[in-house]
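#structure-requests
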Amino acid sequence: MRAQPPKETRSMQPEHPLAPTPAEEATARRDGRPTVMFLLSHSGNGGAQELWMNLAEAFRARGCRVQLAALYKPDDEEAMPSIGSLDWLYVSARRTSAARMLPLLMRFLRLHDPDFVFTALPAAGVLTPLAVLASGVRARVVVSHHTPVDTYAPMLNRLDALTGRLSKVAAVVSVSKAVSDSLERRPAGYRAKTSVIRNSLPPALERHLAELTAKRGARPAGRKLMAIGRLAQQKNYPVLLRAMARVEDARLTIVGAGPDEQALKGLAQDLGVTDRVRFAGQMSRLDALEMLADSDVFLQPSLFEGHSLALIEASTLGVPLIVSRVPAQVEGVTTSDGAVCGVIVEPQDDAALAAEIRRMLDDDDHRAEWTRRSAALGASTTFARTVTAYEALLGKLTPAPG
């Protein structure tokens, strides 16, 4: 019996409330307002999803017709809640093979007919240029990289080097110089399209963090440590847990969920640190920020990053930072004038990490200096700059003829 093709979601049907009507598309294009689709591989919780939702809302506020989309909704976690008037559009009801996803994406693009597609995450970045080319739609593609490309699955990395050279790919954006540097082995035609636009936080969140910062100024110093991020290999939590085995008089809270949760809880038990390490699980953004504002040190010993939003949040609050010595993290804690605003340790050195944690907690002058530096770093990052940079990029790209 032949296998049935994956079902399409309602977002692929013309009657879907977010599908543009011909009249709406005509009006938008007559007024010179482009239709911009922000497309990710999946809608699970993550920094790329958050950034794309924020940018989509910002572009909508500036008069663009905007669509927020994902190839699929992950089976093992909830979709990131959409914001404002946006809702997720799905190419497929579930994750499926690239061979099956490609024709579904072609049909999806014909239905929604965007002028531009901004992609995030490797699968979307590879499949979208192929689907645009094969479907004959007018869209130009902007591929974005949020982590170094050598962290991608090898096949996706190789394919990206090929699809990024297609004429339908108008630009390639990296969220940090370290991420951009990972493209240095790409062909010249690919590299010619690249630029760097750093991440930031949306205005509403910036205002909320300002309120939390004001409250934070009145709290007494404590011994609360905080880490935020998916419980996955990238975040290097085993090293953090081993460091906690050397720091007996502090409490660590880890916010996030992910595939390594049970293994990490087992390691915490083996190390005897369950009395001072709390796995808080996934929580709302606002709840996590309240907890972050009430912490004394932010820890992020990641093996790789792009430009971490959690790091930006911590610095905006003025929480002292301890991060790993990997290129994107070093860049992430360095201001444009070269000032280093976070303590940097080797990613696999749990003894050094523990020593820096103890010094940050025990030395008042040391903590005050790194608090000041963290706040300076946070003040240097604004959402307005990020949106302006993406708008400038869009302004350079002329929509393909219809």
